[in-house]
From TrEMBL:
Ca(2+) 1 binds at residues 269, 277, 303. Ca(2+) 3 binds at residues 406, 414, 453. Residues 528-758 form the Peptidase S1 domain. It comes from Littorina saxatilis. The lineage of its organism: Eukaryota, Metazoa, Spiralia, Lophotrochozoa, Mollusca. This is MASP-related molecule Type 2.
Length: 761
């Protein structure tokens, strides 16, 4: 089926090329886009012609901004003069941390889609020079309702103007300042709202309310509850919904009620922007109402709640791949009394996601994506904003406890953006499954934005924030204690508690018990391809890192609670609940009385890990329970040492052997270190090995780490202790000539390892 889809895609490209003119312009497609709209060639998104060359990524791949004659005009306050879309923020220069400039002239033309009206709402910081007349003749912000061609109001002083709903889809905002006396300025959130005017109704066919799974036009469902299913839906058989389906359901509840949709099952073909198969939910009578979300993929969405007694659902499928479909139960709840039946639901949109930024002024709190429960996926087409403001002189710490979103290299689709000192440029753009690092602001105000496109991409996020007076950042020559105190790094591991709780003595090279196996390994010249089976218990720090119960990577036990591993092991899945660690094991397929299976509580990687160059390919795994150290389980040493080329070390792991020996068993191989200069020769790795890496192996091949060994140790014996010298990272082939294994040199990351373990212990 996949090959058929690829062929279909190639045919589609040929057709698109036919429709695209010689100048590469977007093409119209009356079959799938509203009248007068045009379709983007690569993403199938429908846009109005006026948004071409407006400086915004309306197509999703910047196609509408290519071959433009001139860049869009600038407002005079640092943002584009033309503002288009459903929601955004504009503001005076330097807002909210410094005063705006003298003699400023800024202008914004705001356009929302046809069928919507503009509404504006000022942010809670408003500080513009006043004058004694009260008529704002010096500095002022002006709001114009373009459809009525008149000035709605001009505002100055410190009183926040009220929200304003305008009468068309076009508004104009200007800001002017004179030559003296400035203030913090203003921030203004503009957004699209559905006007109250009524619209023509579609032709309806009325059928019994349960079950509703056919596709004869629009099905009207009345009452207090019912079921909706995709055509042919069955949970017990392999039946799929048909291709080219076009189904509509209009739900009308009793007066003074809201409609609650609960997804019992959901599986539609996944695609960018849900352009193949999709389920769209509208907050009203028909498809002219506000779109609550467009869904596809395998994630079961959370509950959806209407704002009134009407809800419209539209299901489309293309001519290709089909899924199992969906099964929805719908109920109604009275708006006159609070019903316990829906206390588990979160209205969509919720606070901060209804076109109004949510203001948070407490010293600590929690922010989550709409409907977050840790298991269900968030809805598409969300635009949420939270403005965290604490007393001046304090800063804000943000810590994520859960994070899962659709991934893109530049976070173009779904993302969390964090703004600090400049609301026009995000300090952090976050997406994917990787738990973000903690963030500390430089000021007392932080803006958090959450945006999702039409395709559902994960369970969302959960973050906590706290405020405190600013602390001095430690220098590179200092060690950061768990409580934030800075001490000279040369005091770490000196046997004294220089940090308040002694976390500077947690991970130390001078640990007398580390790297000393009770059962000694057999060290010989056997050249873990071309190696030999290790003696059981002789490498007691070797662990098996498992995803969904299956071995995926190796790792090194460096503390009863901590395992050292490689960041690339977790690129496909960052959810700790699906990972586990096995220690004390000799053979993957055979249980041992010495083995211990441990759950994972945290996965921490270097924030600067690069999956292209493998730079900083380091990860730490915190175990939910401590390992029981003994004869068959022990920790390896860490040490800030650099060894010369030719020094023989050992690699261990459960990985691929290319049929040389002992599949699925713990293996060892002796490998000499190779200089980085030699490893970077043109016929070797041609400059790909970084200074923070080390090569180990043989010029003619024969011994190497291989698939399944990633993340495991390159261990060297120094002074009677085995030290983790490297982390297995990458290579071109297993045991190939002039393609030795490449390892992350642990000594370069010792301080990061120590500080990270201290912070999370």
């Amino acid at each position: 089926m996949e090959s058929a889809k690829v062929l279909f895609g190639l045919l589609l490209v040929v057709c698109i090329g036919f429709l695209r003119g010689a100048n590469g312009q977007l093409h119209g497609d009356l079959r799938s886009c509203p009248a007068n709209d045009v379709k983007c060639n690569n993403t199938d998104v429908c846009i109005v012609p006026s948004v071409r060359c407006d400086g915004r990524n309306d197509c999703g791949d910047w196609e509408d901004e290519r071959d433009c004659p001139t860049p869009p005009p600038e407002s005079g306050c640092g943002s584009p003069s033309v503002q288009r879309g459903m929601s955004d923020i504009i503001h005076s220069t330097n807002f909210p941390y410094d005063n705006y400039t003298d003699q400023a002239t800024c202008k914004w033309d705001i356009f929302v889609p046809t069928g919507y009206h503009v509404k504006v709402e000022f942010l809670p910081i408003f500080d513009i020079e006043d004058d004694v007349t009260g008529q704002c003749r010096r500095d002022a912000v002006y709001i114009y309702d373009t459809d009525l061609n008149h000035l709605v109001g001009q505002y100055c002083g410190s009183n926040i103007p009220p929200p304003m709903g305008l009468s068309s889809n076009h508004a104009m905002v200007t800001f002017k300042s004179d030559y003296s006396h400035t203030g913090k300025g203003f921030g203004l959130h503009w957004f699209a709202v559905v006007p109250t005017a009524t619209t023509p109704s579609p032709t309806l066919s009325t059928v019994p309310p349960t079950p509703a799974s056919t596709c004869n036009g629009v099905i009207r469902l009345d009452g207090k509850s019912g079921l909706i299913a995709s055509p042919g839906y069955s949970l017990t058989t392999s039946a799929h919904y048909p291709p080219s389906a076009n189904c509509g359901w209009q739900i009308i509840g009793p007066p003074a009620s809201k409609i609650v949709l609960h997804f019992e099952d959901f599986m539609l073909e996944n695609s960018p922007n849900c352009s193949m198969d999709s389920l769209s939910i509208y907050d009203g009578f028909d498809e002219t109402a506000s779109l609550l979300g467009t869904l596809c993929g395998k994630y079961r969405p959370g509950d959806v709640v209407s704002s009134d007694r009407q809800l419209f659902i539209r299901f489309f499928s293309d001519g290709g791949v089909e899924g199992r479909g969906f099964h929805i139960t719908w109920t109604t709840t009275s708006t006159l009394t609070t019903s316990a039946a829906v206390t588990h639901t979160t209205p969509v949109p919720g606070e901060g996601c209804d076109g109004h930024p949510r203001l948070l002024t407490s010293s600590s709190g929690v922010v989550t994506s709409p409907g977050y429960d840790g298991t269900s996926s968030y809805l598409g087409l969300q635009a949420c904003q939270w403005l965290i403001t604490v007393p001046q002189g304090e800063v804000i710490d943000i810590k994520f406890t859960d994070f899962e979103m659709e991934w893109a290299r530049d976070c173009d689709y779904d993302f969390v953006a964090i703004y600090d000192d400049d609301f026009s440029k995000a300090k952090e753009m976050l997406c994917g499954q990787r738990l973000p690092l903690d963030f500390t602001s430089t000021s007392h105000t932080v803006l958090v934005k959450f945006t999702s496109d039409a395709e559902v991409g994960g369970v969302g996020f959960n973050l906590t924030y706290t405020s405190h007076p600013p602390r001095r950042a430690c220098t590179s020559a200092e060690y950061t204690c768990k409580n934030g105190r800075c001490i000279p790094y040369d005091l770490v591991c000196n046997g004294l508690w220089n940090c308040f709780d002694g976390d500077d003595e947690l991970i130390c090279p001078n640990n007398p018990q580390c790297g000393r196996p009770v059962i000694q390994p057999h060290l010989d010249s056997h050249r873990v391809v071309g190696g030999r089976e290790g003696v059981e218990g002789s490498w007691p720090w070797q662990v098996s890192v498992r995803l969904s119960g299956k071995h995926l990577c190796g790792g090194t036990l460096i503390d009863p609670y901590w395992v050292l591993c490689a960041a690339h092991c977790f690129q496909s899945n960052w959810r700790t609940t699906e990972w586990s660690v096995m220690v004390g094991q000799q053979e993957l397929m055979t249980s041992s009385p010495h083995q211990q299976l441990l759950n994972v509580s945290k996965i921490i990687t270097r924030h600067d890990y690069d999956d292209v160059t493998s730079a900083n390919d380091v990860a730490l795994i915190k175990l939910a329970q401590p390992t029981k150290v003994g004869r068959y389980v022990n920790v390896a040493c860490l040490a800030p040492v650099t060894l010369p080329p030719g020094e023989v070390c050992y690699i261990t792991g459960f990985g691929e052997t290319l049929s040389t020996c002992c599949a699925g068993k713990l293996k060892q191989a002796a490998v000499p270190l190779i200089s980085t200069n030699k490893c970077n020769l043109p016929d070797w790795y041609d400059g790909q090995v970084l200074d923070t890496m080390v090569c180990a192996g043989y010029e003619n091949g024969g011994s190497d780490a291989c698939g399944g060994d990633s993340g495991g140790p390159l261990a060297c014996e120094i002074g009677g202790h085995w030290v983790v010298y490297g982390i297995t990272s990458w290579g071109i082939s297993c045991a190939g000539a002039k393609n030795p294994g490449v390892y992350i040199q642990v000594a370069n990351y010792l301080k990061w390892i120590q500080e990270t373990i201290a912070k999370h212990s």
